[in-house]
């Protein structure tokens, strides 16, 4: 999931590689501004790096297992409905992101040395952005869908179906892919500012190693500004404005209709909890991104703002990472239907696993018993046949003797 995350965003370490993550918005020249601060606060840097490693690892284990479970239940165990289509796509987005988290863990553990090559650098960041955009737009679509269902229930009843929901989901993925494409274009690898032996994954906005020519520097700044503004507007402000408007309409309508409120309460609470969680996880990150951009645009750099960005962005980024493993937890705690399906499915799997050997031995014993019965039956049949033939021979012989005696 991710928006550009500056070198200081992910982990505070000295130099390019120590500051950066693959999600950062800074290019090579920006890391020099943080170098002195990071050197002076080595203890804080190490603490933030350790925090990042713990959060990434936790998000990976909980996110992969939890979202895989959601995909399994909503995709194969529950009846296909419009709501299950939304939650399935949301789980797929989170699963993709968390599945790539071991790369982030490795990058951080290696003191921000990227050993996976340029293509994986581009792909990993693109997946992160894809998660962020797809998640927020799926939440927006869910909010619009709930609003339409509450305000125009008859129309929704006649027009809402799984096929249309799947088409809308496909459109969301295509839009998210388009908005994530610049990450694949601008992401690059190269020797870090701090050490020539270390390879960093960073944004090369000018496709150049020239950091002195004014025109090139201006191009870097323009593209940096554009990406940050587009990400904030299209990845946060616009979709969340739509979400807030939809829920304001829903709440107003539910207050006027208590019957409708009681019928929609459970689904409404689950979706509201997911949206609030997404907002709390992502709002600090986007706010810190805007502060970081404003700091870059100022001629007189404020040391206070630099320190806020250097400390705040790693924390905000770690919080954003956690969002991908929280949705399955919300489903389990708040969704009774989902909880029941999970319990039944897991019990079925465990029962099948534990009873496999017993069933197999039982089947084999039954086959053996049937074979024995068949053998006994065949033997009995054979014995009876031989007796019958013997009696027949004796009868025939007796008849022959009688005929001979009469003569």
TrEMBL record:
GO BP term (any one): chemotaxis
> Where is this chain compositionally biased, Polar residues type?
394-407
- The principal localisation class reads membrane
Q: Where is this region: Disordered?
A: 373-407
Q: Which residues cross the membrane?
A: 53-73, 85-110, 130-155, 167-187, 229-250, 270-291, 311-334
Identify the Gene3D superfamilies for this entry: Rhodopsin 7-helix transmembrane proteins
Where it sits in the cell: the answer is: Membrane
What SUPFAM superfamilies does UniProt report for this protein, alphabetically? Family A G protein-coupled receptor-like
Q: Which PROSITE patterns match?
A: G_PROTEIN_RECEP_F1_1, G_PROTEIN_RECEP_F1_2
Which CDD domains would you find in this protein's record?
7tmA_CMKLR1 (cd15116)
Domain G-protein coupled receptors family 1 profile: where? 66-331
Sorted UniProt keywords:
Chemotaxis, Disulfide bond, G-protein coupled receptor, Membrane, Receptor, Transducer, Transmembrane, Transmembrane helix
Query: Is Transmembrane helix set as a keyword in this record?
Result: yes
By sequence similarity, the record places it as follows:
Belongs to the G-protein coupled receptor 1 family. Belongs to the chemokine-like receptor (CMKLR) family.
Name the chain's protein: G-protein coupled receptors family 1 profile domain-containing protein
- Originating species: Oryzias latipes (Japanese rice fish)
Encoding gene per record: LOC101175382
